């Protein structure tokens, strides 16, 4: 990998955005032989004394297979990977829904991994790609013609490419340079994440509670540790985040029914706003959007990262299969990518938003209906297998 700065450089693709999705996109494109520029910052090192990254993701089987093809999965520290063999979902009455990898005849339901572990492995893989120029720089302007796109950097240098990929998050700069229409609905909730040492083993089980319109999940980490994801109403979240570590831990013990015994908070809680965000188009002339730049969903199903990685897989496969006479910014190719992603994205948005709406409805009638629904699904093995197959990607 070259760290070069010149007045003008030419590439086949420029990837803007340095999260997991952007770096995976840059790596995937270089591995199919493209010359790529990546505008991103390297992964930050963990703070001294911090054992776990508070950002964790549930990687589906399809995401695991993709990272394996990139030769990133094999480089991960196996002692920091936690498989999920079971998932238990509790309604806000007595209903319970149990998903089992054994019953679904799959090796595992998901893998729980810290974001920093995957990002550092991606960084290491990117450093060995001779086709990649990695620039720690910001894009300042985008000019698109029929022949190429030109990205101007903050220092005045320019990058010319057939395609620009926006992987720069929910507030995407790349998307803002196009005429895409964004619709955003604030859930009036904050996602709170923190990691805990558990007094009782998690048993490789992810546990989730729906309570009072909020969603609380405890995901298994390697060893006797767990990662909390609490989607709380904004006012309640502010109250939780203002608590002392001891008060917050006691509240988590209460809301989880002391299922994990005595807890010890090992990474301080932090919050981020939750919203549903849709984009009317994933493409523009010589531009393709992936990840949060293309869609945002509620985290209650833990599928946001998997959805973004499936964007990258689809885009890479579309470009790799192009006819010899087309360049990778050809509008016909980009429309193929967009069509390939619409159904998956729409299905996941409807499912997560529908669940959120269902459990946010007040009143005893709504509570009875949704808990009866959970019980009904729990009694239908074929339905549960179908849900697992879709969650696995």
From TrEMBL:
Q: Which SUPFAM superfamilies match?
A: FAD/NAD(P)-binding domain (SSF51905)
**Would the keyword Ion transport be found if you checked this record's keyword annotation?**
no
Names of the cofactor(s): FAD
An example Pfam family from this entry, by short name, is: FAD_binding_3
Enzyme class (EC, first level): oxidoreductase
Concerning PANTHER family, the annotation shows:
UBIQUINONE BIOSYNTHESIS MONOOXYGENASE COQ6, MITOCHONDRIAL
Report the family membership. Belongs to the UbiH/COQ6 family.
What protein does this entry describe? 2-octaprenylphenol hydroxylase
Record lineage: Bacteria, Pseudomonadati, Pseudomonadota, Betaproteobacteria, Burkholderiales
Q: Give the encoding gene's name.
A: ubiI
